[in-house]
Amino acid sequence: MVDDFEAKTAEDWLSRVNDPTDYVDLGDFNKDFWERPGELYHATEEEHLDDILRDGLVPKSETRGLTNRGTGSAVFTTTNQDTAASGSYGNVVLRIDTDAMKKAGHTPDVALEEAANMAEAWSALANLVGIEDYSYEDSDPGAADPETVVVFGRIPPKFIAVVGN
Fold first, then answer.
1. What is the pTM of this model?
2. Three-state DSSP class for 9?
3. Secondary structure, 3-state, 28-82
4. pLDDT in tens, 32-82
5. Which domains can be identified in the chain, with CATH numbers?
6. Burial class (CB in 10 A: 0-12, 13-18, 19+), 75
7. How far is 59 from 65, CA to CA, in rounded Å?
8. Fewer CB within 10 A of the end CB, N or C, for the chain?
9. How far apart (Å, rounded) are the C-alpha atoms in residues 107 and 99?
10. In 10 A of CB 78, how many CB atoms?
């Protein structure tokens, strides 16, 4: 924690903070998500489609960006269909019906990417101390996408539908 009496301005104080979560509580994303689940999207290459429609989306621990390489086995999804359809992640877009998952009692843990969590924490702390227009800088800006939802569990095929390719 920062010695509050060393800083001369809010900006100076904020620059001395190591971990914003020492000061702000972001709540429980997993609990909040499953209280009101929304559709998620996942993109894949067409060559993987038959396996996914047979086995579901299986968490994998593959090489990722620098900021999420320690995430472990997971399925990366987005709340934004346009992001999934951008072609960056594959040419087939899948919709995941999380409402049906919840009704079936299948609620694997979900989270934001760590970089997005940190961006939210820094912004909340800056707002708390009265700093407007604060911008969190990260070495991998794509990893701070607040629309990315990381699913730590298998998504069975009955909850998956092809929505575009």
1. 0.76
2. coil
3. CHHHHHHHCCCCEEEEECHHHHHHHHHHCECCECCCCCHHHCCCCCEEEEECCHH
4. 999 999 899 999 999 999 999 999 999 977 645 444 455 568 899 999 999
5. 10-164 (3.20.170.30)
6. buried
7. 17
8. N
9. 10
10. 20
pLDDT tens, position by position, 78-137:
999 998 998 778 899 999 999 999 999 999 999 887 766 677 777 778 888 888 877 766
Q: Which residue has the tokens 């920062």?
A: 2
Residue 151: both structure tokens together? 């699913």
Q: How many residues does the chain have?
A: 165
Identify the DSSP state of 118.
H
Q: How far apart are CA 10 and CA 87, in angstroms?
A: 42
Task: Quote the pLDDT of residue 86.
Answer: 86
SS3 84: helix
